[in-house]
């Protein structure tokens, strides 16, 4: 993951917005989740630097914040790319070869699963079952869903986004 990509989201203005969100939530019951939601929206991710500010300002242990951020998939530690490419590794998709699809995508976009390209264009993710097993193997690019993907389809699909 490119360090520059994380640094690029950590702007002064965004931290100002974060302080406002923290102060707005701090008197509420269960203030951490709404604050983390706000942080994810403001920065597009909740990296260590943002967790640290939340921890200090809210007096919540950093380990607790890290635990919550890594537990919920709606939160991310690093900014996602312009196109999030997800391949299902649930059982139905896996037995139909979704691991090979991931390997092929890694080669095409030169990004390892779980990472974002240095130019911020692609994030490649492996997901659990997304509830479309009848279409296995399934991959998505942004909001677009591709089902019954053959290995030979992958380069055509990805060519639309390159
Ligand atoms: S296992 Fe892939 S959609 Fe269910």
Low-confidence stretches: none
Question: If helices are DSSP runs of H or I spanning 4 or more residues, what is the number of helices?
Answer: 8
Straight-line N-to-C gap: 19 Å
Helix percentage range: 40-55%
Hetero groups bound?
FE2/S2 (inorganic) cluster
Instruction: Find the structural class using helix and strand composition.
Output: alpha+beta
- Count of DSSP strands: 4
- The CATH architecture of the largest domain would be 3-Layer(aba) Sandwich
- Strand arrangement across the biggest beta sheet: 2-1-3-4
What Rg is obtained from the alpha carbons, in whole angstroms?
18 Å
Shape: elongated
Q: What is the CATH superfamily classification of the largest domain?
A: Glutaredoxin
Number of domains: 2
Describe the structure.
This protein is an alpha+beta fold. It has two domains: 69 residues; 77 residues, Glutaredoxin, CATH 3.40.30. The protein is 48% helix and 11% strand. A four-stranded mixed beta sheet has the order 2-1-3-4, covered by helices on one side. The model has no long low-confidence stretch (mean pLDDT 94). It binds FE2/S2 (inorganic) cluster (FES). The site of FE2/S2 (inorganic) cluster has 12 residues, from helix 6.
Question: What secondary-structure arrangement, pairings included, does this model have?
Answer:
Elements: H1 3-9, H2 12-25, H3 32-43, H4 48-58, H5 62-71, E1 83-88, H6 91-95, H7 98-109, E2 122-127, E3 139-141, E4 144-146, H8 154-159
Parallel strand pairs: 1-2
Antiparallel strand pairs: 1-3, 3-4
Helix pairs in contact: 2-3, 2-4
This protein binds FE2/S2 (inorganic) cluster.
